[in-house]
Write a structure and sequence with these properties.
By secondary structure, this protein is an alpha+beta fold. About 70% of the residues lie in helices and about 10% in strands.
């Protein structure tokens, strides 16, 4: 990767558009103090993604925008574009790439690759393993070399890994592991949510059972309403109610009798149809019998074959005769069944007539009972009138005291009987009123319970719908998380495979590890078994030799070096 061109506009001291072409392999920018040499390096660091205003010698990021000078107004935007030429094939099919960054006074920052808006992460991913980017070894500022030399082995190792092209894969592995961890956490949260939803669903099922009980109560309420309606419409005379019940029973029996009559009529008609079909079939069989007999008479004087045919026809004729006899028997049985059905029909008709007569008699009895009640009420009124007349007569006829006393006793007894009857009727009416009042109170209570259950049912149904939606959303989220988990797992497997295939090592060690010549034990790092606490001290002690190859003898080492030289596969340590 080679720096080809740098374009700067509105960045620090570069108010106008300024281009720097780096055409040769080595370029130096010289000039007096304060002419802007460091601003060129700052522009390069800034466009490659530096987010620290302090490293760019500013208090905040908007300080990189040109503020203005004597006779020159400031700009509202800072923009830097760097052109990089790929000479190693890191960019694939592309040979050149343009990376740009734009910042406005409103603190709106944009990154671009080949003129297309991208994220900062995309820029950093593009520059991995190229030596460019924030903190890479491509920019060596004052004091940077001393800091590298005095750095610990872990820091120096990161520089070597960046140069060797390993840091990209390690970064991808770390990101994959982080994504995998987040995915596992998401799965755990999803499982917790599913458990919570399952508990809510169980609760809602209980509420649904209560709703079903509510429907049963509502059905009972309808029955109670019907009973109340019956009670409201019930008369106060038991005889009249019994007559109505009897009339209803007789009407039901009449309806059943009429239904049975209709069924019997239909059955008789079906039997008549079967008899007609049987008679028609018998006539057909008789016709066939006559034809067979005629053919027998015609073929009697024929040859032996004709005789055999005649015998066969005779057998057919016998079968036809048997069939005719069977049909005759069926016809007789059908006629008997028809006669039985007609007798049953006549009996049903007589029963219907009798029921009609009984119904008329009961209706007459009902009318007579109504008349009797009316007569009782009229008799009561007459008795009262008689008592009043007797009282008036007593004042008028003192001489007929004995007769009047007798009449008085008789009238009083009749009046007592009527009043007793009236009291009984009043008691019955009071009882019915009390029962009606109780039923109405029960109805009001049930209506209140019905309203409460209805509200709870609606609330439960709404919550159940919400739970169903949450479960569906969680299912979709779980599917997405599982897909992401599979993707991360796949990428992790790829990275593990790359590590197993010694990606990132030099060509020489990689060639020897892949071919495994005789005497090669492996990498020193793979052969040592130390704890995590001792690994840093070991790496500091070994330095670059941590990736050295271990062989059995000096002879084996010479043979391997000769093989590398012969194959042109690089060098090894």
């Amino acid at each position: 990767m080679r720096l080809k061109r740098l374009e700067v506009r509105g960045f620090k001291s570069f108010a106008d558009r300024t281009e720097f072409d780096f055409t040769s392999s080595l370029t130096g920018i010289v000039g007096p103090n304060g002419c802007g040499k460091s601003n060129v390096v700052d522009a390069l660091k800034w466009v490659l993604g530096d987010q620290r205003a302090k490293s760019l010698r500013g208090a905040e990021m908007t300080d990189v925008i040109f503020k203005g000078a004597e006779g020159r107004e400031g700009t509202s935007v800072a923009e830097v574009t760097v052109h990089l030429e790929d000479t190693t094939g890191l960019l694939g099919d592309r040979t050149e790439v343009r990376i740009g960054r734009r910042l406005t006074k409103d603190k709106e920052s944009h990154y671009l690759i080949d003129g297309q808006p991208v994220r900062l992460k995309d820029v950093r991913d593009l520059l991995l393993d190229t030596g460019l980017g924030v903190g890479a070894y491509s920019v060596m500022e004052q004091g940077r070399i001393d800091s590298v030399l005095s750095a610990n082995p872990e820091s120096r190792r990161s520089i070597f890994e960046e140069a060797a092209g390993i840091s990209k894969f390690k970064l991808q592995k770390r990101e994959s592991l982080r994504k995998l961890e987040r995915t596992e956490q998401n799965l755990a949260r999803v499982q917790d949510l599913l458990d919570e939803r399952a508990r809510r669903i169980r609760s809602l099922r209980i509420q649904a059972g209560r709703a079903r009980r509510y429907r049963d109560l509502r059905s009972q309420l309808r029955d109670i309403k019907a009973a109340i309606a019956v009670i409201d419409g019930r008369g106060y005379l038991a005889a009249r109610e019994e007559l109505r019940t009897t009339i209803a029973e007789l009407e039901g029996r009449l309806e059943r009798a009429e239904s049975e009559y209709a069924e019997s009529t239909a059955r008789i008609e079906a039997q008549d149809a079967e008899i007609r079909e049987a008679e028609s079939a018998a006539e057909i069989e008789q016709e066939r019998l006559r034809e067979a007999k005629s053919r027998i008479e015609q073929l009697t004087s024929g040859r032996d074959a004709s005789k055999r045919r005649a015998e066969e026809l005779q057998i057919d004729a016998d079968g036809c005769a048997e069939r005719v006899a069977e049909l005759e028997g069926q016809r007789a049985r059908r006629r008997e069944e028809l006669a039985t059905g007609r007798a049953e029909l006549e009996a049903l008709e007589s029963s219907v007539i009798e029921l009609h007569k009984r119904l008329e008699t009961l209706q007459e009895d009902s009318k007579a009972a109504r008349r009797a009640v009316t007569e009782l009420e009229e008799g009561r009124e007459r008795s009262r009138e008689q008592v009043l007349e007797w009282l008036h007569a007593k004042t008028r006829n003192r001489n007929a005291v004995h007769d009047q006393e007798v009449q008085k006793r008789n009238a009083t007894a009749a009046l007592d009987r009527l009043e007793s009857r009236l009291a009984d009727l009043d008691v019955d009416r009071a009882g019915h009123r009390s029962e009606l009042h109780d039923r109405r109170a029960e109805l009001e209570e049930l209506l209140v319970r019905l309203a409460d259950v209805t509200q709870r049912e609606q609330s439960g149904l709404d919550e159940l719908d919400g739970a169903d939606r949450d479960v569906a959303s969680l299912a979709r989220r779980e599917s997405t998380v599982r897909e992401e988990f599979a993707s991360v797992r796949s990428r992790l497997d790829v990275l593990d495979g790359m590590e197993q295939h010694f990606e990132g090592l030099d060509q020489g060690p990689k060639y020897l590890l892949e071919n495994e010549p005789e005497g090669l034990r492996g990498r020193l790092l793979d052969l040592l078994e130390v704890s995590l606490e001792d690994s840093k001290a070991l790496e500091a002690a070994l330095g670059p030799y941590v990736h050295a190859l271990v062989v059995d003898t000096r002879t084996h080492a010479d043979e391997m070096l000769a093989t590398l030289a012969r194959e042109g596969a690089g060098r090894a340590m």
